[in-house]
Amino acid sequence: MRMSNNKPVLLSITELGGYPDFTPLYESTGFDVIKTDSVRKAVKLIRQHKPVVMVAEFNFQSDFRDRTSSLETILSSTQGVVDVDMIVFYEEEFTVQYQRFLQTFEVAASLVFPIDEEQLRLSLTGIMTCISPKLGAG
């Protein structure tokens, strides 16, 4: 979706945080940024703003019976609502669980903590290159 300034929307979902705010990087690569710190708010924002990119953390939660993290809830809520490219930040110690998650869900980029800002920039630039022709068509 395009906001009033004609930029595609990036939804940044920071549940636990503990890393830099990448908003300036997101904006410098051409996105209008919306931020939230909860899954419930994210689901509402997805329906409202129809982001083209979402950036979120994979936070493994062993107490969930039917899923590995709240990321599944977020991605499930996009089905049929919006076609979104997902960038996921994850802890190296949860690589096995994250790989299991990747068997079900497709993501545009997976970045391990600590986040390499240049790698994130390259991922965003690649996504922007792919979506730019679509934005001009609408």
Descriptive notes:
This protein has a single domain (9-137), classed as Response regulator (Rossmann fold), CATH 3.40.50.2300. The protein contains 5 helices and 5 strands; from the N terminus they run βαβαβαβαβα. The protein has helices at 23-28, 39-49, 71-78, 95-102, 117-137; strands at residues 9-13, 32-36, 53-58, 85-90, 109-112. The protein has a 5-stranded parallel sheet with strand order 2-1-3-4-5, sandwiched between helices. Helix 1 links the parallel strand 1 (9-13) and strand 2. Helix 2 (39-49) packs parallel to helix 3 (71-78). The chain starts with 8 loop residues before the first strand and ends with a helix. The model has no long low-confidence stretch (mean pLDDT 86).
How would you sum up this structure in a few lines?
The chain has 138 residues and is α/β, with parallel strands linked by helices. It has helices at 23-28, 39-49, 71-78, 95-102, 117-137; strands at residues 9-13, 32-36, 53-58, 85-90, 109-112. Helix 2 (39-49) runs parallel beside helix 3 (71-78).
Task: Describe how the helices and strands are arranged.
Elements: E1 9-13, H1 23-28, E2 32-36, H2 39-49, E3 53-58, H3 71-78, E4 85-90, H4 95-102, E5 109-112, H5 117-137
Parallel strand pairs: 1-2, 1-3, 3-4, 4-5
Largest sheet: 5 strands, parallel
Task: Kindly provide the name of the CATH class.
Answer: Alpha Beta
Rough outline: globular
CATH architecture: 3-Layer(aba) Sandwich
Q: Strand content of the residues, in percent?
A: 15-25%
- CATH level-3 fold name: Rossmann fold
- CA-based gyration radius: 14 Å
In total, how many beta strands?
5
